[in-house]
Amino acid sequence: MIDLGLPDGSGVDLIRELCGGGQRSIGIVAVSGDDGGSARSKAMEAGASCFLAKPLVDLACFQQVIRTLVYQDTAPKPFVPQVVNTRLQLDGRAFVDDLGHVGQQLEKALQGNDRRELRYLAQFTRSIAQTAQDHELMDSASAFMARLRGGHAWHKAGAQVLVQVQDRLVDTPAI
Fold first, then answer.
1. Is the separation of the CB atoms in 98 and 128 below 8 Å?
2. Is 79 helix (H, G, I), strand (E, B) or coil?
3. Which of 30, 89, 129, 168 has a beta carbon 3.0–4.6 Å from 48's, enabling a disulfide?
4. Does residue 132 belong to any structural domain of this protein?
5. Is 76 part of any domain?
6. Alpha carbon 108 to its chain's center
């Protein structure tokens, strides 16, 4: 599994590198919270076996993808209990940890005008907001991403996301 929004490089480039030697014996699952459509096509063109959009909310779908990739041949498959209609639940502790991480990193990146780090943080914030079904934060992070891509008024949009993240950390009870 390779997240396309890696903080230290491109997941698409990593997939391309892994597939560059010709035949590969492993399945590559590309995942991304950037569901604008181009992420999927770029991953598949680079050689990914399949693409899953984040957040991954359907455990049965995830399990089916993994089973398909692992048991590609016709050999007998070991019994693995099938999970049916099980939606993944938000892990509150992980959510708070992620918000804390985003807050710290976003503050540093805004001060340093580190646009590469800001693009990653905008995407990551959007992904965790989507998982938490926090539409206000998700919309702000999406607007921040768009402004970073467009190259205009991105600092104010980033500051707005930072304030929202900090507000959520204050309002979220200790878990």
1. yes
2. coil
3. 30
4. yes
5. no
6. 21
Q: Where are the beta strands (DSSP E) in 33-108?
A: 50-53
Taking a C-beta distance cutoff of 8 angstroms, is the pair 154, 168 a contact?
Answer: no
List beta partners, residue 58: 87
Residues 103 and 83: their CA atoms lie apart, in Å, by 35
Any idea what the Cα angle at residue 69 is, between residues 65 and 73, rounded to 5°? Answer: 135
Sign of CA dihedral 61, 13, 35, 106: positive
- The string of pLDDT tens digits covering residues 97-117 is 999 999 999 999 999 998 888
Name every residue whose Cβ is closer than 8 Å to that of residue 100 and which is 6 or more positions away in sequence: 169
Q: Which of 37, 70, 103 is at the close of a domain?
A: 70
**pTM for the full model?**
0.62
